[in-house]
Amino acid sequence: MLPVKAKIEILDKDAIDESRGLPQFIDVQFNPTEYTLNKGAQIAEIGIPGIDSPLLQFIRGQNERLTLELFFDTTAGGMGESATDVTTLTKSIYQLVKMQPKTHAPPRILFIWGKTLSFHAIVESVQQKFTLFNPLGVPLRATLSVTFREYKALEDQIAELNPQTADHSKRVMVSREKTLAQIASEEYRDPGEWRRIADANPNETANVRRLTPGTVLRIPPTTEAPGELESR
């Protein structure tokens, strides 16, 4: 069975311009020998006086990154004065990190390799390393270190997360300088719902203008009437 070649598809149709080295599909010459996926989370430390270790609170996720190296070689066509410049193969990928005239931004792309790797992204960085030259200094071999940064539309992220705030009770920890209105805006997308949270946490929100950092609040579902406390 012949190996499946990895390829890059440009998703922004307005960015496609073969005269600038940007076709709709860019085939890699050789498949990468390895790749790295990296994803992190932004975590806030909440210091509580008298406690040995700060409490940790999840703030938000970070974009996933795909990092790999792509190898290009034109020595099969000879190494003499008429040798093919390897940048004729690499320029399409190098263009992916540049602002395009019609979109005023680098294009969104899809990196595809077989059935297991499909990565929607923009290209965050490209580093070209040339390692072989003909007598005239024309580069014949290149290794590109490429970092793709995950791109997801807001509606896709919401559908993927399937947030349950509206229908299920949950708990959040108060961070420093956080107000009830801010929490209501984050949880219900409506700062005016702060009263619902206050009614569900009468002891913790006695002073609604000054919440104590580290306090854990119950966020009631929207199906629960304001003022109605669960028996737990």
- Rounded to the nearest angstrom, the distance between the terminal CA atoms is 61 Å
Portion in strands? 25-35%
Write out the strand line-up for the largest beta sheet, numbering strands in chain order: 2-1-7-8-9-6-3
CATH class category label of the largest domain = Mainly Beta
Can you give the mean pLDDT?
87
User: Assembly type of the shown chains?
Assistant: single chain
What structural class do the secondary elements suggest? alpha+beta
Q: What integer value in Å does the Rg equal?
A: 26 Å
* CATH-level-2 architecture of the largest domain: Beta Barrel
The low-pLDDT segments are: 228-232
Count up the helices.
Answer: 4
Helical content class: 10-25%
Largest sheet features: 7 strands, antiparallel
Number of discrete domains: 2
Number of strands: 11
Question: Could you walk me through the main structural features you see in this protein, from its secondary elements to its overall organization?
Answer:
The protein is of the alpha+beta class and 232 residues long. The protein has 2 domains: 7-157, Elongation Factor Tu (Ef-tu), domain 3 (Beta Barrel); 163-219, Roll (Membrane-bound Lytic Murein Transglycosylase D, Chain A). It contains 4 helices and 11 strands. Strands 2-1-7-8-9-6-3 form a 7-stranded antiparallel β-sheet, covered by helices on one side. Strands 4-5 form a two-stranded antiparallel ribbon. Strand 4 and strand 5 form a beta hairpin. The termini are far apart. The model is unreliable at 228-232 (pLDDT under 50).
